Every structure is written in C-alpha cells, then in structure tokens.
Task: inverse folding
C-alpha cells in the first residue's frame, strides 16, 4: 500500500462515521471544510478534513461553488501572497462553473452598468484607472438560491467544526442556528447583534481564535461540556463573510429555538437521508 493509501486507511479507522448526517452512516470519503474553493491561491487549512458518506460529500457541490463567489469578492491577493492575475483566473474559473451548472442564477447575479453605478456609490467603490463601472466587481446576491447556499454551507461548516471541537458527530437530535453577513462588518458587529443575545446567553464567553492562512479563515469558538455537548462558532472568511453558528447537541433541551423571531429561517439540521 502506498503512503497516501496508508494515510487514508488510518483516517477512516480514526473517523469511521460521516459527521454530516447524524453519525450513523459509514464514512467513505474525505471532505474539506471550509471548502477549498473558498480559498484564494490554493492555500487552505490542510487539517480541516472530515469524514463523509458519499451523499453528504456531493450534496453541497453546487452551493459551495455559488458561495465561493461571495467568499472571493473581497480580499487582498497581495496579503495572501497571490498575484492579482492568479486570483482573477481562479475567480473566472469558479464563475464559469456557476454559469455552467446554474445558468439562470448566474444571469440574475450580473448587473447592468447603471445598476453597478448606483450600487457602487454608497459603497465608495470607483472604477480603477482605465476602467469603467462595467469593470467594478459587484454582483447581486438577491437571488433566493444564495440563501439556500448559505444554509447548505452553514449545515456542513458547523457540523464539521462541531466534530472537530467535540470529537463526535452532531446526531439527529441536534440542530444549528446560524446567522451570516456578507459585508465587511465582520464578527464583532454580528456578535453584538441584539437578536443573538438569547443564543449567546447559553454559552461561556467565546475565545477569540487566531487568524489563519493570512486572514483567509478565522474561527473563534466555545464548547459547553455537556452530554451531548453544544458549541458556538464565529467564523470569518476573508473580509467577505462572517458567520455565527450555535450548535446544540440536543435541541429538545433548549428553549432558545422559540425565542428568536424568525428562527426557522436560520436553522439547519444534520442531513437526513431516507434509509
Ligand atoms: Zn453522511
């Protein structure tokens, strides 16, 4: 057996169950979270590899591609150590993928020059030297599919981080409440949002994590050491996306699910595949 195959075998011995659908299915694949497509310059956290069954691994493919567009909108290639050209090539490759599998949604994201101009002004964005508003990198994420993509991403990201920090898959008794923001306001503003208070009240103070990978990925978290454990995560991807996920090991024990007005729109569960 080659070294890679040996490593893989060891991985599945240590992680025999899929961490995305309740921990009952056998893991047959390795799944990177956050997805590699979210990272610029092929720089991603090497150790964030998770055990997944086939259906869970492939379930998020299209939504990852869509969400990667948001993650890659705002970043500084030079800060990451990647050339503008390379970052642009990666962006175009991903955009082509989205245009191919979701042509209608892709078209809905494209803005006319007039639309770009009116959206760019409040953001303080201006065309660079020799450019017009046509070249300003803004797109619309009003399409409902982006919301669906955020749910898919939240489900897998927080199932994965929960597995990483508690050592166990989130079971079918568990649930996730998530919030995200797609601008550069970041975690601090999201964490101080009024409607997060009922959630935050359940958790010990969050530990601010270290930025990783030249600030392409930062994660702060705290764990309630109960059976089953619950955990709270604050994740930042580039300057583009901040996401908070409260992962409850057993939702029947938490009243918080009724305390937040539009909670149904912000809750996800481990995948439940028909047997
Ligand atoms: Zn699974």
Result:
């Amino acid at each position: 057996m080659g070294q890679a195959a040996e490593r893989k075998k060891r991985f599945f011995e240590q992680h025999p169950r899929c961490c995305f659908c309740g921990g009952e299915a056998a893991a047959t694949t390795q799944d990177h979270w956050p997805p590699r497509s979210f990272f610029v310059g092929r720089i991603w956290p090497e150790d964030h590899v998770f055990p997944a069954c086939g259906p869970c691994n492939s379930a998020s493919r299209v939504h990852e591609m869509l969400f990667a567009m948001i993650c890659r909108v705002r970043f500084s290639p030079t800060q990451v150590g990647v050339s503008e050209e390379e970052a642009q090539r990666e962006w175009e490759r991903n955009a082509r993928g989205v245009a191919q599998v979701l042509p209608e949604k892709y078209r809905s994201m494209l803005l006319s020059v007039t639309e770009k101009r009116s959206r760019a002004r409040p953001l303080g964005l201006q065309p660079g030297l020799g450019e017009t508003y046509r070249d300003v990198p803004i797109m619309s994420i009003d399409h409902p599919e982006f919301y669906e993509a955020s749910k898919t991403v939240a489900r897998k990201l927080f199932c994965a981080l929960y597995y990483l920090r508690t050592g166990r898959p989130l079971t079918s008794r568990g649930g996730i409440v998530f919030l995200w923001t797609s601008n550069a306001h970041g975690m601090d503003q999201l964490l101080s949002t009024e409607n997060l208070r009922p959630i935050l009240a359940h958790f010990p103070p969050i530990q601010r994590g270290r930025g990783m990978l030249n600030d392409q990925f930062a994660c702060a978290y705290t764990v309630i050491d109960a059976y089953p454990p619950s955990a709270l995560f604050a994740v930042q991807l580039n300057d583009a996306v901040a996401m908070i996920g409260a992962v409850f090991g057993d939702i029947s024990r938490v009243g918080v699910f009724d305390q937040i007005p539009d909670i149904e729109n912000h809750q996800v569960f481990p995948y439940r595949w028909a047997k």
